[in-house]
Amino acid sequence: MDNHSVAVMIHMMTLIASITSEGEIQQSNCRSPQYLEMGREGVVKCSHGQTVYGYYWYDTTDSSRNQPIIRNEDGSKSGRGYAAGEYDIQNDGSLVIKSVSFDHDRVYKLLTAKRQFGETSEEDVTVIVTVRPDEDFPLIDQCSGDVSCFAQLSPQTALRCIVSNSRPAINLRWSLPTSKGTLDVSYTSRVSPSGQLFTSEASIDEIPFQGNSLLLLECKQKRDDLPSLLTETATVLIQNRDLAQTIPPGAQTMTPYYQEGSSPQLLCDYSENTIAMAWRRVNSGTLAAKTRQRVFKMSEDVGLSLDGSLILPDINLRDEGVYICSTNDGESEHDVVYDVHTYAIPVHPHPLIEACGTRKVCSSVQVAGDVLSCEVEGARPPVNLTWSVRALNDDLTIDSEGTVNNQSDGLFSSIESATLPNLNTSFAVLYCTPSVEGDVFELQDSLLLVELVGPRPSFKTPPITNWFERDTDGELSCGNGMYVVWKRRTASANDSIAFAVNGGTYPMDTTDRSNRFDMRTDGTLVLNSVLVDDEGIYVCVFGDGVTESATMYDLKVFAVPSPPHLVVEGCEQQSYCVLEKPSDGSVLCSVHGIRPEVKLTWTIQSGTENGATFVNHTVVRSINRETYDISLHSYLRAGRTAEKITIQCKAVGPHPELFELSSTLDVRFSGGEVNEDSNLALLSLLLLIPLAIFVFVVICIKVTRRRTNDTRGLSGDETDSGRKRDRAVPDSPKAELDETQMTLLDSTADTSQDQLMADFVRQLKNKYRRWCANVHPIPGGGKHQQRSIDQIYVDNGLEVSRSHNLAGANGIQSYEDLFRLEAKRIIVEADAGYGKSSMVMKAADDWCKAKDGSPLKEVHVFILLQMKSLKDITSFYEAIVKSLLPEDTDITKFMIERLLKRRDVVVVIALDGFDEYPGRDMKSDFKSIFSGDMLQGAQVVLVTRTDCLPSALDPTTRHFRLTEFSDKARQDYIHNSFQEHQSPAVNELLDKFSVSSIINNLLKVPLFFTMFVHLTNELKDADTIESTTRLFELFMKIFENRLREKEGRVLSKRHIALLSKIALEGVEGNEIAWPKQALLRRLGTDCFNDFVHIGILVEEEEGDDGSSMEKKIGITKSTRKVKFTHKIICEWYAAICLVRYLEKSQFGLRGYERHLRKLNPFELQYLYKFTCGMSSIAARRIIQYLDSGVNGHEFALLCKVEETDQIESITEDIKKICEESVSFFEPSSRLLRASKVQLLEIAFQLKIPIKSVFFDRCYAFFEEFPDSLGMKSNGLRIPPLANLQELEIYSPGHKMTEGECNNILTYASKCDALVELRLSKTLQPMVMGGDGLRAIRAKKIKCTLMWLPEGDKLTYFLEQETGRWKFYRKELPIGGDFPGTAKSRLEDLEYLDEDYYKDTLEGGRVGKDTEPSSQETEPLNPVKPEAESKSAEA
């Protein structure tokens, strides 16, 4: 059948269908028109839901004359279009055009036959071919091809938007969006054909601002225009150029003042109805603009917040001007106007009085008519100054002249000069008061106490004599007045001490001893540890500016003798004794170390009736610097037939109320004739002996002086490891002679050994008392936060635990127990901030107070050396002299050496901070002491950072570790610290801030918990704290706010950058303490003072031997060193600088690893964490660096938490880790173990199942934490993990104690999900018991306890009811269950044989292998650091 016949047949079928339908209405299944995109596959959709026999598509409306281009008859496709691959047909009849072209833009016809030779239907479908324009949005001529833009135009400017090369033509429209909807604007349209394509445009001839300065217009395709060929709407925000530089009429202008360097925000009237807004500055143009879709910034010097506020970062004088914010809702406009001014606060928060330097309050001596000046520099606006004198609480203004100078940087300096008037009082209180126009900032008054020279009223008050015992505190009271001034007059000097004004007390300028005096606000003068040098006339002048009065004291110092009684030769009792003498003879009475001088007298109480008398009295008097030794040698004549005579020696003097010293004795005579001449000869000989000794001493002194003068001319190096020499060059006869002379000189000095010991102890205690009385719980705290060590010390928070599992260390629960041990060498380790220094300071305080019950009460000498201050000092005795004794001490290091080597002297030595000792790598006495080669009889306690120990240790050295704060200790500390306030509960504080497990671990360190407690009142807005970076941001913010609260200033970004660079250099070079002068040069005085003031930096004194010449002549100097309050705070600032380096690096891993290579993560883990928390860019690079090393993944995960501040960010990583066994093995580093412990705690917090934990030869038992598993060497512990399933402890050859077994079972009982506990290569007790076993029995989920003493050779199972071990002799069947499970009964097993246990297991068969079960290798060290510390070496 030909094609024509087919066409005829289909036409006839159509006619028949139309006839048989009898008027039935045909429903269209094809939508028309349909749009197909040029160059793509297109589908002409015609969906038929019912069964159809055939579909016939025509590319013309005349189906009777043409063949279908494609047909589908009963699933069979054919047709010329199908054969050519141009068309296809879908099962529902839809026509598929494989590649749409302009030829397909026509009307198609579809015939549908429901059945063969049955009824048919036909439909026409118009296909329109579309071409998308060049852009998906109209192009506005002012926007340079951008979909939205900002333009500044005049109203007469024409606007045009255009769409090019589209098909069909697009109908564009301009509209004006408002808060209520869209409004039409007047525009004209035009369409231009170009071949098969079209260009459409819409134009506005005049912009309809309608009196507003802003207008937002939209250009888009009309809503009803099909097809929709544009996906975006073009917008233009237009600012009326004619109004841009004018202030809107009627707008209210605000005039704010902002501090220079701050970043204020100018608020705008921005709301949900705002369509557009713009900020402009008069005479400077538009700064920023904003629509709902986009922000436009025309100036990089400003910022725009989400609410439309304008941010002026680091504002300065150039930013002053008029700023206008216009907000537009599409119909109306609102303007806000700011006339912005800046102010600059002077560096000093008070005027500088010429006589005071930079101090706010001071004193000076002046004459009436002197010119006084005060000045304020670096202020804007200028400061007005006035001088006034205070009298009867009223201010009397003094005539003065002022000048204001304009500095080149836009700042002003103000100087006010006044002439001191003639007043009728000895003292006057003057104020220099600042004021600023508009009160834009406040400055404090400066005060000058003037002592007027010239004729003044004299005070006739006689002095009141006050006696104070030496080395005790004394108080001198005074009257009340507006001012109180204390002065001291001696024969050689007239010093001013201190004064009080307006409730404040201040030292005065003329005394260099003011730190020894304290003055209370009521005028009372407190003398700390009164010395003989403090004697003199003390005058207190007090007045109200009109009248004055004075109180005078004659202060005298007395010293109780040592011993505190008279000494009679031959008597051991203090007040009474009996002497046996054969006949007449001499008696000797003496007193030592007494002040003031007394006289001794002998009196006969009974026996005068027999003629008993004293003859030939000889008094020997010696002066020991401040005290007197008095001895009275008398000859007693017994008289006639006397058997007993009662005599008394008594001290008499001008002040009998000070001492009541007397000694009574009975002299019994046994007979014999008295030979008076022989006695007199003997007495003469005794008197000649002291004279001979005195002559010999004088000769020795002259020889020694001659040697000293000779050595001053010597050349060459006379130092030994940087310390001053007190001996001549060895191997020289002259050297031996000089040393002998020196020894003789010391041994024959006036001071006896007992007196020397008393002086030495007194000087030590004076030093320790000052240390112990000046403790600040948090860095930078003021005097109101100052405490004594006794007030804040919490013993329970410093429990001592074993770190090396040494036997016999049970019962070490307190620092006092350390000093009860028989061990002579003790090491106490702890991380930074755990209270090492506080512990030894508390011990020194106990020794000073001779505290009852303290093991230190019977100690004669307690030496506490802070080793960080011993720069270039390797001699132990030299360190004592330079760091503990006063500068004017007469005690030499040779004297100290002899004292400490006396067998009758009990000595305890505490060396604080060996890890900070600058000479720890040098040969020194300290290493000899700890190796047992020096001072073997003294007990020595060394406290140091974990894993930083001397290289050679005495074999008997005992090791201990300070533990973290327990909850009880933390609560006790809070109670002690908040003495005047109600103390909060620990759990309340932690719950309040949702503290994560990572932060809670850090807060167990006493120092940081202390900071947290003291700062919680300022953390009111804090939410969840999940990272250390977040916590330290709060700490640092509060530190820096102190400057704002106290001084009205803020730390500048430049100052922070300077300090951060210094900090990074310090941690890279492992030198985090700097000479004060060097740091002053780099930071500047103001910056340095700010950081010290708020507690970031701290000054401390460090010994220094000075130059070579100074060493030769015996001059020593004391330098000031500056360091960060804590090493972690140093790491915080170092991280700020490291972030800058890492963000700028452009060369991948090699580009920034040169910085990281110098930063050992073992030593600086917080530096890494802080850096990740501060910058996501730096975090990615650090994590890449850590992951590139061995076993760095765990620590990298913790750094990731810092980056995101969300623990949940590492959930998937932790799941992967917990799916395998988590191993802890002995050679690994503390950082790696600590990282794993924290990850396990996070898994517990997130309720992630933990498959297994494996302890490989690192298990340790800490008695103070019975429900935790401890680790050797580093003191880490794992708390109970409820989601732990399996636990294995591998410890070859280790015999478990009862306490260790109980600890392991107790831990297992608290792990709710634990089903298997394996003890490998250990020796267990034959029978288990105790509280741990009872807890295992009560466990809900039963746990199988397995013991493998010989590895996999044989396995024992614990029968929990009896505590006995059983084993299974036969091999288990394939697929069988281990004994102890639900499918096998333990009663079927055999008990462990006692003989086999003793002979085989206990006898040495327990595994001794040394190969670790764990597959871990050397811990994290991605790139070996250039300056790797010894503690990090594997």
Plain-language structure description:
With 1434 residues, the protein is of the alpha+beta class. The protein is built from 30 helices and 74 strands. The strands form 16 sheets. Strands 64-65-69-70-71-72-73-74 form an 8-stranded mixed β-sheet. Strands 19, 20, 22, 23, 24, 27 and 28 form a 7-stranded mixed β-sheet that branches. It has a 6-stranded mixed β-sheet with strand order 1-9-8-3-4-5. A hairpin with a 6-residue loop joins β8 (106-113) and β9 (120-130). The longest helix has 36 residues, at 676-711. The chain starts with a helix and ends in a 29-residue tail after the last helix.
Short description:
It is built from 30 helices and 74 strands.
**Strands, total number:** 74
Distance between the termini: 96 Å
Which stretches are low in confidence, meaning pLDDT under 50 for 5 or more residues running? 1-26, 672-683, 705-751, 801-811, 1103-1118, 1370-1384, 1410-1434
Overall 3D geometry? flat
